[in-house]
Design a protein that fits this description.
mainly alpha
Length: 286
């Protein structure tokens, strides 16, 4: 029994980590008044970038760490493009995020085929230790909470989201504050994509994020855009995913396995529907 519970806890933590990181960054950017639905694409680009660098590096213990660093750079680059278009050029954030998701899906598919030469070929890279990024995620949770609620910059960031005109009237640069929040989101989504490819897997497949970015958006709603709430919500989804794997292992023939696969997403959808009407403090519109 103890082994089963330990296994469930470890599976919960590892499955929740990519979602936790993506949702944490999105929560910060939404606090600044920018909703980035393109985090799915950011994670996908980060995953491919990490695997590509890891595959071309020397086969040493350092290779997956170089890949993780490259994943972060890839996430930051795509998020910077989003920030430039949405914050500086005034493009609609929802349209830009949608375009980034489509771009990421196509670009990574083409780049993967260029890397391996055959769309059906598989390539394996060294993996990160499973504990590495979850430990870093814990540090980032504490950092995000302290930054958001215990620093002057965090106060300004929240003001930029809730009352941008008032923030600008006291001399704060709303654009710079939103850039800082989005870059933090790029960092966390880069880590999420890198861990997904280099920690939970040891390869890259087309569309491997499989909607995790959109699940992260729902987790932000359930967690009320608070670092701790978002973290607990992500762990809840991870627990549901771990539980469905356990249920499948029991071999319950009376219930179709597709039900177990859909269970975590169904629970997330119900939770998002339950909490969404209760959130009266959405970020103010620009």
């Amino acid at each position: 029994m103890t082994d089963i519970l330990t296994g469930l806890m470890l599976t919960t933590l590892t499955l929740a980590t990519p979602l936790l990181l993506a949702a944490l960054g999105e929560a910060i950017s939404e606090r600044a008044g920018v909703v980035n639905i393109g985090i799915e694409g950011v994670m996908l680009v980060a995953a491919f970038t990490g695997v590509a660098v890891c595959a071309t590096a020397a086969n040493t213990w350092l290779a997956p760490w170089l890949g993780l660093g490259a994943a972060v750079i890839g996430g930051l680059a795509l998020t910077a493009a989003f920030a430039l278009l949405s914050v500086n050029l005034g493009c609609d954030a929802l349209l830009v995020g949608t375009a980034l998701n489509i771009f990421a899906l196509g670009a990574t598919a083409v780049a993967r085929r260029e890397l391996v030469g055959d769309s059906n070929a598989a390539f394996v890279v060294p993996t990160l230790p499973l504990w590495s990024v979850p430990v870093l995620a814990l540090v980032l949770i504490v950092t995000a909470w302290y930054w958001l609620f215990r620093t002057a910059h965090g106060l300004g960031l929240r003001a930029a989201g809730e009352h941008p005109a008032a923030a600008a009237s006291v001399g704060l640069s709303v654009a710079r504050l939103r850039w800082s929040a989005l870059l933090f989101s790029g960092l966390t989504c880069g880590l999420a994509g890198g861990y997904l490819a280099l920690g939970l897997s040891n390869t890259f497949v087309e569309g491997m994020t499989a909607g995790r970015g959109f699940i992260a958006l729902a987790i932000v709603i359930v967690g009320r855009r608070h670092p701790v709430g978002v973290s607990l919500s992500a762990l809840g989804f991870g627990a549901a995913s771990a539980f469905q794997f356990r249920l499948q292992a029991l071999g319950l023939d009376t219930i179709p396995y597709q039900f177990f696969l859909a269970l975590p997403y169904l629970l997330t959808l119900v939770a998002a529907m339950w909490f969404s009407p209760r959130l009266a403090n959405h970020p103010a519109a620009k």
